[in-house]
Task: structure prediction
Amino acid sequence: MEEIAENAALAERAPRAVVFDSGLGGLSVLAEIRRLRPDVDIAYVADDAAFPYGRLSDETLIARVEAVMARIVAEQKPDIVVVACSTASTLALPYLRAAFPRLPFVGTVPAIKPAARESRSGLVSVLATRGTIARDYTHALVRDYAANCEVTLVGSAHLAPIAEGAMRGEAVDEVQITREIAPCFVEKNGRRTDCVVLACTHFPLLIDALKRLAPWPVLFVDPAAAIARRLDALLGETPRGSAQRRPGAAIFTSGAPPGAALQKALLRYGLTFTPSAAISLAMA
Ligand code: DGL
Result:
């Protein structure tokens, strides 16, 4: 009898997901997850105490992501974790999977394969943090899936902080964005780049500016919808929740409460700042 009641309670419990990023970029992924699976309870964790990840050495980044994840998993007890960050995923995913073997992780990898498939001109660019551009993982994707294309890898140090600032209500520096994206646009023998892979989850937050400032129209390839489908496939076995939207928790590892503009932005994503759950884990 007791067991039946327990099973019924479990069946009613919404699946719990943690969406994790160095900052606010993962919100571009969260939006797609919410669209596809409104029944999932989401805790959004921004490791803002260590932002930006793009400047960290491999060893520091792996250690940092493992340490933060251990705290999050213990506190949130998620059914699934989405690492909504290419810089972390392309390096730390194998370590996370080894450290938490029973927990499914969905990673974010540069969408080089679909871009190579879509490109007509054969000129594809990958726009990412410098960390992601340096990874063997990224180079292997180019080798394995884009052999028919000429791929230009563009590492940007400034775009993620600009996107972060925009979410916090700061003015967007369009001149700087134009400078950062310029190397993505290549002209060669009468052909032009026609696909730009947004291989950092912060960049889709700037999509309107990117489209406006691009020297010619291109397809900006955003992996968020594919990540949401992967989460849906992995949760497939778990019972669906009630599809009733509850505000999710927004957790910042710095513990710093967001300003008014960011609070408003978080609300648009169905999140409220949750101070009690803050993880103050300052960078060593
Ligand atoms: N949002 C992260 C990504 O997808 C990177 C931003 C950072 O440098 O922390 O790569």
The chain has two domains: 9-108+226-273, 112-222. Residues 1-10 have pLDDT under 50 and may be disordered. The two ends are 51 Å apart (CA to CA). The chain is about 45% helix and 15% strand.
